[in-house]
C-alpha cells in the first residue's frame, strides 16, 4: 500500500509526504511522555476516564459519549464492526482507511466521484446522489484528504438533514479540522445539530505531529451507538503515554492558534513559489494547484515529479493510488519556509 512517510524504504532528507504539523511539538507534550516513564509497570486506565473528561469539557458533552482509540483508524474500525453497515457511500478521492475498515466487515461501497473542474468540492449534485442512495452509512472528511477542501456549511446542513430523515449514520473525519482558521465556527455549527446518527472522529496525530503516539477519539450523539462502538474497541487500546499526552494536548489552545497562522502564511508562500516555478520551468508549465484549507496542497503535472524529487532525497506523496485521481497527482505538506525553499530550488532544476 502506498502511503506518506515511507522513509524506511527511501533515502529521504526532506519529507513532504506526511501531512503533519511542522511546528515543534510543545515542550509540555514531551514532558508528559518523560513523566509517564515511571508508570510503564502499571496498566493504563482501561476507561481513559481522565482524558475523556478533559475532552468532554473541550466539546461540551458528556464524557461517556467520547471514546478514545489507538489513532483515528482504531475508531473507524470499531465503528465499522459496531454498526455493521450493509452499504456505505464514499467520496473519491478521499482517505483509504475507510475502505479498509468497511472491507473488514464485508460492507458494500457506493462511490461519488468529486469533479476536478469543481476543485473536488462537494456540491448539490452529491446531495442529490445521497438522497437517492440506499446506503446506511456515509463517510465525509472535513477538510478532505488529499484535496484539502472543506464542505460548505450550507451543503453540510443539507447532508445532515438528508441523513437524519433517512436514518443514515454520518461519520465525519475531522482529523485535519484543527488546521482550519474557522474551526470555532465549524464546531459551533456541528454542535447546533443534535443528530443521534452523527459521529465525529478526531486525532492529535496531525496537529501535534505525534504519529508515533497513536491517539484518536470519537464524539458520539447517541448512547446506543457509542455502546455498540465501545464493545468493538480492544481492552487497554490507549497507552499510558498516549493518555498523558492527550491530557496535556487538551490545554494547548495557544499552540493550535499559532500553528494555524504559520500554516496559512507558509502555505501561501509555497503556492506562490510553485506558481513561480510553473512560469519558469518548461517541464512544469502544466502545473495545477488545487485550493486547500488544510496543511497540505494537491497538485497535478504530467512530469514525473515523485521520481525527480526522490533522486534529490525529497519525498512527496504520490496520489495515483487514490480512487478518483490519475497518475500525476501529488500531495505536498506545508513545512517551514527553509524546507519549502529547498523544495522550490530543486523544482527549479526540472
Automatic annotation (TrEMBL):
GO terms for molecular function: pyridoxal phosphate binding; transaminase activity. Pfam families: Aminotran_1_2. Residues 15-347 form the Aminotransferase class I/classII large domain. SUPFAM superfamilies: PLP-dependent transferases (SSF53383). Its cofactor is pyridoxal 5'-phosphate. Keywords: Aminotransferase, Pyridoxal phosphate, Transferase. InterPro entries: Aminotransferase_I/II_large (IPR004839), PyrdxlP-dep_Trfase (IPR015424), PyrdxlP-dep_Trfase_major (IPR015421), PyrdxlP-dep_Trfase_small (IPR015422). This is Aminotransferase class I and II.
